[in-house]
């Protein structure tokens, strides 16, 4: 069957996206070669994408007014706008809950109930809970990293193993949390409910977490005493509150708005003030500025690609690559195609959320063609983006923990055992539950 699009036009439509990736990746590699810290995060993505947008306008070969209309249509896509609003509310919740002392409370609550003999699996669980509640792996690493480093020094546990454990737990929650930007991006681009993606994700993540805990239990050395601080249990409740509401199926806007108010109320029982509440909400908004702008720009760029057949072309090529597997099972082939697509994108961009936003429309096309449910495609996008991000030696997670623990980022990324186990778990589910996708 011949493609229903102009091949040359479709290929050209992809050039702006490749330009964005080249600029973003190229600048990161260059700065890293110059010894710049966090090299891949020095050039803001919303700035890196501007030349790509200009190129898209040039290649579109229509009037400037028509090109602007096409771009605005993509920016104003219902999924893009919804995603951006959720980003703002998720940022506000994280800022308010963090400012009230919620992060410290969750950390110390976890440490107070972990026996010293279970230190590594316990830290994995703490990082997993915090990242699931906060929706950010970087925020979790920033909160737990210094504590984990102090524990490593005090107990003599291999710092690479300790750092890998923190990354593992952080990526668990980054992948699962309903307020994580990766979850928001994956569910909106695939058109499914967060609670459905969450439940689908659990089938893959829980077995991987159990295996990881068993491995860390085996690797934990002789018991050591760990000092903990007092905490206010009330400050832990907002995180539990939004998780319960989300799993119960409440609308995500209701969940986040309620969580913001509840976190403030818990803070008001202490020294938190109303004036700080207002400022923290706005700070949460501004914390999401980069991903907010990038999502809108990617939405506009994607409309050019969609209109000119780029998505159809990529979907066709991936299906051609996976045709050998497709002879055995079409759904398995398309699911592996989605996984390979987002992993390749993440390796280039070194940002799991951006890789999902970039590849989401293409993954949706593959899912629709292969009759794969939205919750499965969203789950796979999120899982394999987080797997790649957690094992990238030039990813922000490995770079931050490498600096914190004074070790090579490579040692951090190769010790992130959960990410490797999660990948195997996901592939096993793809192959064994092939008719339930």
From TrEMBL:
Q: Which residues form the Na+/H+ antiporter NhaC-like C-terminal domain?
A: 15-218, 240-429
**Which InterPro entries has this protein been placed in?**
Na/H_Antiport_NhaC-like_C, NhaC_Na-H+_Antiporter
Q: What is its main location?
A: membrane
Pfam short name (any one):
Na_H_antiporter
Keyword Cell membrane found: yes
Q: What PANTHER family would the database entry show?
A: MALATE-2H(+)/NA(+)-LACTATE ANTIPORTER, NA+_H+ ANTIPORTER
What name does the UniProt record give this protein? Na+/H+ antiporter NhaC-like C-terminal domain-containing protein
- Organism source for this protein? Pseudoalteromonas nigrifaciens
């Amino acid at each position: 069957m011949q493609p229903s699009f102009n091949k040359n036009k479709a290929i050209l439509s992809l050039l702006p996206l490749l330009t964005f990736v080249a600029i973003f990746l190229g600048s990161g590699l260059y700065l890293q070669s110059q010894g710049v810290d966090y090299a891949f995060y020095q050039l803001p993505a919303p700035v890196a994408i501007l030349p790509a947008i200009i190129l898209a306008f040039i290649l579109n070969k229509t009037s400037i007014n028509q090109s602007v209309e096409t771009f605005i249509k993509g920016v104003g896509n219902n999924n893009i706008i919804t995603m951006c609003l959720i980003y703002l509310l998720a940022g506000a919740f994280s800022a308010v809950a963090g400012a009230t002392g919620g992060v410290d409370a969750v950390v110390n609550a976890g440490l107070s109930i972990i026996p010293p003999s279970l230190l590594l699996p316990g830290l994995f669980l703490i990082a997993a809970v915090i990242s699931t509640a906060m929706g950010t792996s970087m925020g979790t690493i920033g909160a737990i990293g210094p504590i984990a480093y102090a524990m490593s020094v005090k107990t003599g546990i291999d710092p690479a193993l300790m750092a890998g454990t923190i990354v593992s737990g952080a990526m668990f929650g980054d992948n699962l949390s309903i307020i994580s930007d990766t979850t928001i991006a994956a569910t909106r681009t695939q058109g499914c409910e967060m609670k459905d993606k969450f439940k689908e994700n659990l089938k893959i993540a829980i077995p991987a977490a159990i295996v990881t805990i068993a491995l860390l239990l085996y690797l934990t050395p002789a018991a050591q005493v760990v000092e903990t601080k007092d905490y206010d249990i009330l400050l832990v409740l907002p995180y539990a509150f939004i998780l319960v509401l989300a799993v119960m199926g409440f609308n995500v806007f209701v969940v986040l708005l309620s969580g913001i108010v509840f976190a403030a109320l818990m803070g008001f029982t202490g020294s938190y003030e109303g004036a700080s509440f207002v400022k923290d909400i706005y700070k949460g908004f501004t914390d999401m500025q980069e991903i907010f702008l990038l999502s809108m720009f990617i939405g506009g760029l994607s409309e050019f690609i969609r209109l000119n057949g780029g998505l159809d072309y990529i979907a066709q090529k991936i299906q051609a690559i996976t045709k050998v597997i497709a002879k055995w099972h079409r759904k398995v082939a398309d699911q592996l195609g989605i996984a390979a697509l987002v992993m390749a994108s993440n390796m280039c961009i070194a940002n799991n959320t951006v890789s999902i936003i970039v590849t989401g429309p293409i993954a949706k096309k593959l899912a629709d063609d292969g009759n794969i449910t939205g919750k499965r495609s969203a789950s796979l996008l999120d899982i394999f983006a987080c797997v790649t991000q957690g094992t990238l030696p030039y990813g922000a997670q490995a770079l931050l923990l490498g600096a914190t623990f004074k070790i090579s980022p490579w040692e951090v990324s190769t010790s992130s055992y959960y990410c490797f186990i999660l990948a195997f778990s996901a592939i096993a589910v793809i192959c064994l539950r092939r008719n339930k996708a």
